[in-house]
Amino acid sequence: MQAVPRGCEVRWDRQGGCVTIICMQTVRVDIPAAAAILYEIRIGAGLLGDLGAKVRAVAPAPSCGIVTDSNVGPIYLAAAVRSLEAAGFRVMTFTMKAGEEYKNLATFSAAMDVFLGGGVERATPMVALGGGVVGDLTGYVAASLLRGVPFVQVPTTLLSAVDASVGGKVGIDHAAGKNLIGAFHQPRVVITDIAAFRTLPAREIRCGLAECIKHGVIRDAGLFDWTAENMARLLALETPAMEELVARNVAIKAAVVGEDPHEKGVRALLNLGHTFGHAIENVCGYGEVLHGEAVGLGMIAAGRLAVALGKFSAGELQQMMEVIGRAGLPTSLPGLDVEKTYATMFTDKKVKGGKLRLILPTRIGHAEMVNDVPAEAIRAAIASLGL
Amino acid sequence: MQAVPRGCEVRWDRQGGCVTIICMQTVRVDIPAAAAILYEIRIGAGLLGDLGAKVRAVAPAPSCGIVTDSNVGPIYLAAAVRSLEAAGFRVMTFTMKAGEEYKNLATFSAAMDVFLGGGVERATPMVALGGGVVGDLTGYVAASLLRGVPFVQVPTTLLSAVDASVGGKVGIDHAAGKNLIGAFHQPRVVITDIAAFRTLPAREIRCGLAECIKHGVIRDAGLFDWTAENMARLLALETPAMEELVARNVAIKAAVVGEDPHEKGVRALLNLGHTFGHAIENVCGYGEVLHGEAVGLGMIAAGRLAVALGKFSAGELQQMMEVIGRAGLPTSLPGLDVEKTYATMFTDKKVKGGKLRLILPTRIGHAEMVNDVPAEAIRAAIASLGL
Question: Which value does ipTM take for this structure?
Answer without folding.
Answer: 0.87
